[in-house]
Amino acid sequence: MLFAAERLMTSCHLSIDLVIGDVAITQGKSYWACCVDPSSYLVKVGVGLESKLQEWFQVPQDVVSPRYDPDSGHDSGAEDTTVEAPPPYAFLTIGMGKILLSHGSALTSRDPNGCTVPLPPRIGICLDYEQGKVSFYDAVSFRELWECGVDCSGPVCPAFCFIGGGALHLQELVANKQDRKVTIGAFPKLD
């Protein structure tokens, strides 16, 4: 199921709910943490360009099908000349108490255990806006899980996608290490 999660956005009939942070990040480094309920069906945790996240979920229903092909249908070669730009969003996929590490050679491995890691109690997300980079951490041990580039050419928002139902608690990192519930847009800034 986790392998199919990367294709779910264009080929599923499950309910998909997107929650976008109400405060966009436009500079500096930002860090926040969240707890994903291990019984959640499928949850994507990450960030994305505000404009692209909204476009992503406003695709007409007749376009969202397994037969949809975004290719223009002509062989002008224009598609081949695009410069490799960072993606407009980056998500960590979580399901069944595991995290799919969808990068590197893990996806080509025949060993499905080599592509997943157990879900930690908290996941930390650190966005470095100027570097155009997002890092995901085990927020208990501070071990890095995954790092990737993300397009920061405009306002970037935290985003959470729930596919087929799930639960998540956002947590603010505070000096005395107490967890407290925060609203989706109240993220501490790191200097």
TrEMBL record:
List the InterPro entries hit by this protein, alphabetically: B30.2/SPRY (IPR001870), B30.2/SPRY_sf (IPR043136), ConA-like_dom_sf (IPR013320), E3_ligase_FN3/SPRY (IPR050617)
Q: Which GO terms describe its biological process?
A: anterograde synaptic vesicle transport; axonogenesis; microtubule bundle formation; neuron migration
Q: Domain B30.2/SPRY: where?
A: 1-179
Q: What is this protein called?
A: TRI46 protein
Q: Which PANTHER family match?
A: E3 UBIQUITIN-PROTEIN LIGASE TRIM36-RELATED (PTHR24099), TRIPARTITE MOTIF-CONTAINING PROTEIN 46 (PTHR24099:SF20)
- Please tell me the species this chain comes from: Onychorhynchus coronatus (Royal flycatcher)
Q: Which GO terms describe its cellular component?
A: axon cytoplasm; main axon
